[in-house]
Amino acid sequence: xxxxxxxxxxxxxxxxxxxxxxxxxxxxxxxxxxxxxxxxxxxxxxxxxxxxxxxxxxxxxxxxxxxxxxxxxxxxxxxxxxxxxxxxxxxxxxxxxxxxxxxxxxxxxxxxxxxxxxxxxxxxxxxxxxxxxxxxxxxxxxxxxxxxxxxxxxxxxxxxxxxxxxxxxxxxxxxxxxxxxxxxxxxxxxxxxxxxxxxxxxxxxxxxxxxxxxxxxxxxxxxxxxxxxxxxxxxxxxxxxxxxxxxxxxxxxxxxxxxxxxx
Length: 263
Hints:
Blueprint: H1 17-36, H2 41-48, H3 52-64, E1 68-73, E2 84-89, H4 91-96, H5 102-116, H6 118-142, H7 147-160, E3 165-172, E4 179-187, H8 193-198, H9 201-214, E5 218-222, E6 231-236, E7 245-247
Parallel strand pairs: 5-7
Antiparallel strand pairs: 1-2, 3-4, 4-6, 5-6
Helix pairs in contact: 1-3, 2-3, 5-6, 6-7, 6-9
InterPro entries: ArsR-like_HTH, Carb_Metab_HTH_regulators, DeoR_HTH, HTH_MarR-typ, WH-like_DNA-bd_sf, WH_DNA-bd_sf
Protein name: HTH deoR-type domain-containing protein
Pfam family, one: MarR_2
């Protein structure tokens, strides 16, 4: 489940230093969409310190290359009004950013299923998840027993492995009475997205892994494998008891709104 290709994998264009600088900036824009999407052009300009014209130029180019696409999301204020335009990485973009061995991996899993049955496929995926857990657990546990302390470490480790992870806090109340009660763990890229669409065990076992590492009950709200733009996992910051995991993706494309993802 390790992924090493990043947004800098955009092909270089001939044309000297200026063309290379354009490609570098375009890669930065793509990386920001990957990490923060759905994201507005204005927010991209602010975080990358680019002019509106420059952002638009790069977004148009990335859209023409099928790296990104526009999605419409509900505005935070709710009520009537037109949905807001936001940019996300397109399915073709995810493929270009890391599915180099997809065909080989798919053939291998199909061979395992034919020869040994579906239980063998699950066992194979479980072994890979176990190796990931063994690599992550020492650093996560070193952060202490609190979920709020462990979560940033897990986000960093997932991002290092190409999942473009981030968190979005969920609070209740207003003003001085505002209390952070949970967080959404967001994964902007899934290195095994196409495989997980065919073998949902990837998503199920990954959700269980997150629950075990954080030591709390988590709920998978959406997955890219099921059609969402972002994999989103609800993480309570209080520890209720023994860790468990539930996966709910009844409405995968409706979960990513401005209320719950990268304002």
